[in-house]
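Limitations

Structures in this collection are predictions, not experimental determinations, and the ligand pose is part of the prediction. Treat each record accordingly. The example that follows, with DGJ as the small molecule, is included so readers can see exactly what is and is not provided: the inputs are given verbatim, and the output is the predicted complex.
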Amino acid sequence: MKRSRFFSIASLLLIFSAASFGTLELRAQSRTNQSLPRIVQKDGRYALFVDGAPFLMLGAQVNNSSAWPEMLPKVWPTVEKLHLNTLEVPIYWEQFEPQQGHFDPSVLHTLLDQARQHHVHLVLLWFGTWKNGSGHYTPPFIKLDEARVPHVVNAEGHKVDSLSPHSQVGLDADRAAFTELMRDLKAADPQHTVIMVQVENESGTYGSVRDFSPQAQKLFAGQVPAVLLKAMQKQPGTWQQVFGDNADEFFHAWSIAHYIGEVAAAGKAVYPLPMYVNAALRDPLHPGKANTYESGGPTDNVIPIWKAAAPAIDLLAPDIYLPDYARYTKVLDLYHRADNPMLVPETGNSPEYARYFFAALGHQAIGFSPFGMDTTGYVNAPIGAARIDEDALAPFALNYSIFGPMDGVIARLNFEGKLQAVSEDPAVHTQTLDFGKWKAVISYGLPQFGNGKVPPGNTPPDGGAMVAQFGPDEFLVTAVHARVDFEVADKSLAKQRQFVKVEEGNYEGNNWHFTRIWNGDQTDYGLNFTSAPQVLRVSLATY
Ligand code: DGJ
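Predicted complex:
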């Protein structure tokens, strides 16, 4: 937000000088476009640009019922303790439009005001037609209009707790409300406190692979839309003919994605902020049948369908509540695609999840956000911490205290493809990052001092490391609970690495502030990182 204030002064100067040359409108417009938060793609990599520069979202999400003004005093202390630069907060359709056509932006405006006071950006979560698959956040005029906004009907003819994506009345109403939200936001937020918008929340349906209502059956018996055939390189036919065993699930994914794509497109037409959809995952290693997970949302198997159906959505993002290394990193692999910027919009808030911040960075994440980070009294122990106290916050706060001062530098290095990062894999204890002539070797667990010691791993596994390359022999290094060292990649050269200089310091903006040189015990056994927030600039040579 410091940068935002700078840009407000800059914008005044720009308006003054542009007005004096009679080109006010054009130049103000181009500045607005440049400073509007946006996703930028270059050389197959993505960055979230905020105020015209790559931005790394160090985020957290509040509990579902925590965005109400009376609750916010129980949110901000946690925001501060975590060193967040971004808070994810819901906007509830039932609150925003209590009666059809009557909008109440008061909660939105309170959030904007208080976020600015606390110097954080916001990501708004539109809890509309879908929240965890259900329509619980729809206003009464939707909930009570079952004839026109019906529930999904399962194959046995029973209603399930999810609204049908085939209701034109539902779509029109959601789209109108979301468009009004974006219109109001545009007017109320010239400084871009809000940097992204999530459209719906974990959309899809539990309890039925798709809608089997008469209306849905008719559509299902029809032809697959041409745009989807093209995207999937398929020949024309009905859903069953084209997609066989996957037809039910793919039809539902297309239907929901198309609906949400329409909502997003209408919102973007008035205010084009980056927009994403979050996914309730299926098991990435052993996915069961479609009716064993939330069907229709952007699970890994239907990402191409979502891309074709909802081009207004910038990215599809996994909510990762899978604490084991193999599953967590598999999910990151599945969503880190050439056509999809990487974002972890929700993850568990128990300490074991904190180290995955590094793996997310290593998958070029534009942001990371543990869920349920406030002290309103709710905890979801099966997927997170038993209580949100200092112990639960500490490992997340450590990550963000390391990366907060250099978030822009890190986002830029990642965008340029110069950064690699890993989380501790309890199965191996040593990981290697390839930087051409150099290999960075990350090892975990104490004691590692002396020759011949084998790293035993941390118990519990809580390490992570990041290495970014500035030049052929120059690196930026940080880690938690890990040792980082470098080796000459080509063993046949029979050369050893030596540290020319290891500087500890940190960034303020783009400027490096030197603190001290590490040497002696601090470098003789590699670069050992504990739970102290330490960042090093390392230059290497061989002997
Ligand atoms: C994922 C959802 O997206 C969140 O809103 C929340 O319900 C968590 N699951 C569980 O607490």
